[in-house]
Predict the structure.
Amino acid sequence: MWNEEWIIRNVPLNAKLFVTVYDKDNDKINDDYIGKFQIDLKPITNELIDILGPFDIIRGQFQLSILSIPSSPDTLNLRSLYIFDGPIRYSRHNSLTVGHLTKINDERLYSTWEIYLKRINIYFDRNQKQKYNSSHQAAKSIFEGPMAHGIQSLIKQAHRILYAKHTTNEFGSLNSSEDFWKLLLDTDTNNIKPCVYTYIIEDHTWRFSETGASFFLDFASKHALHANCEQTVVYAGEFHPRPIVGWNQYDPNEILQWNEWELVIDNGSGTYAPDLTLLDKLKDLLVFNFPNLNVVTYDFKDRQLKSSIEACREFAKSPKSKSCKTLKYLITSPLIN
């Protein structure tokens, strides 16, 4: 992407910036390497930096500006270096995935979302990540044993396809909880889609896709697929949207405000078995990134969660879910900022 802006807090005075540049080819899984460069992190304005390829051959120039300001008392009190503080950018990749990956002879459309969240390393300790669950047979088959390498190769290939950065991707910035809810709109009805999503959070991003798509049923672990077979993640589970009144009482012909929706999120990942006690930190992280977002957390064993998921899926099957009257006013504001 061009004309990008990133805000990093608490950068040491002696820090350096390392940049690697690739050429994006939409018809290839892997991008072509162009070159790289490194510079001291000192204030500059629109400086042209040489991109050095193999044998230090100049392969082009990179235009860069760096603005340096003193850290605020707020960020200094966080006592952490290199704090990513925005903007919250997202990408949505719609992939026609080749059937041979799933041993099915067709092509189907799958969407994946990737959101750069602020201050993940403040809410979650990098030294206490959630490691794969060695007592879970599916996870064990991916990370241990003689077949692990082959399984990982297949999953990583699928990950590259589903999260490939293409010029055809949908890109944008999220500046509010309202912007987040717009990501979950059904393009056919312009309503919040009644759907369950599988997610993982790693050091920088929140990745997710719809749960239950037949593509994912062919893999031993949906979470390992989103995590690109990393042995540890910050957190993982499932989430779904829910009207505050509940899906059972929801009338799709009645216009709801954004604050009348809630995000129901859990720790339901057999692959990584996330710590239940960290659910409060997960909620705090999401509310910090999307102020006024209504977040409800459940342990994956909670009966109330199971009832909520069942109600969501039942509504999705009902004729009421096809209504396109609700939220029509939302079309007036563009999804991509």
